[in-house]
Design a protein that fits this description.
Radius of gyration of chain A: 13 Å
Number of helices of chain B: 0
Largest sheet of chain A: 6 strands, mixed
Strand content of chain A: over 45%
Shape of chain B: globular
Number of strands of chain B: 11
Distance between the termini of chain A: 40 Å
Number of helices of chain A: 0
Oligomer: heterodimer
Shape of chain A: globular
Helix content of chain B: under 10%
Structural class of chain A: mainly beta
Number of strands of chain A: 11
Order of helices and strands of chain B: EEEEEEEEEEE
Strand content of chain B: over 45%
Largest sheet of chain B: 7 strands, mixed
């Protein structure tokens, strides 16, 4: 059974804290890994798509790394702001799509 | 408008009624996805299609939910015997199986079950 595991399930941090969460996946049949940010009452926003082992992507205060050999990706948020509060969803694209359960981030002012 | 469209945008129904939502994906996209987001909860993946084939269905989807994509273009999501817990935003997305498979999302259908 192929699973994409995201941890933690939820995270509460103070404004200004840096945080990171993990997406773990089976390393076989890997093609691409996507990170999406999903804010309440809005449509999901694509953050990154990564395909190569060692890929690092950055968008403002958010960055992500990929290790396809060991099967994980980290998403980092530097200096969290209340507007970063959202669910961060990891999706693995291989033979088929496999969806993570998401990490719910709440940033308190 | 060449984006993903969903109809209706809002639906209010009484408990026990059946409802059906429609999603029209971007025309050349062969994958179509359904998600649900309830108040106070994170988003949940429900199911997805590649062309007309339903490839995966979440275990969260009860037997009252059914989705179809009969001609590999638009899709419908039907909820039978609605319950108050079904109240949520139902989002549709589409993508191309080639390339990076980035999903493009529709505006959603907000369902309220009274």
């Amino acid at each position: 059974i192929l699973n994409v595991e995201q941890s933690p399930q939820s995270l509460h941090v103070q404004e200004g804290d840096s945080t990171n969460f993990t997406c773990s996946f089976p390393s076989s049949n890997f093609y691409a890994l996507h990170w999406y940010r999903w804010e309440t009452a809005k449509s999901p926003e694509a953050l990154f798509v990564m395909t190569l082992n060692g890929d690092e992507k950055k968008k403002g205060r958010i960055s992500a790394t990929l290790n396809t050999k060991e099967g994980y990706s980290y998403l980092y948020i530097k200096g969290s702001q209340p507007e970063d509060s959202a669910t961060y969803l990891c999706v693995l694209s291989g033979d088929k799509l496999i969806f993570g359960t998401g990490t719910r981030l709440q940033v308190f002012p | 408008d060449t984006g993903v469209s969903q109809n209706p945008r809002h639906k209010i129904t009484k408990r026990g009624q059946n409802v059906t939502f429609r999603c029209d994906p971007i025309s050349e996209h062969n994958r179509l996805y359904w998600y649900r987001q309830t108040l106070g909860q994170g988003p949940e993946f429900l199911t997805y299609f590649q062309n007309e084939a339903q490839l995966e269905k979440s275990r969260l989807l009860s037997d009252r939910f059914s989705a179809e994509r009969p001609k590999g273009s638009f899709s419908t999501l039907e909820i039978q015997r609605t319950e108050q817990g079904d109240s949520a935003m139902y989002l549709c997305a589409s993508s191309l199986v080639q390339g990076h498979n980035e999903q493009f999302f529709g505006p959603g259908t907000r369902l309220t079950v009274l």
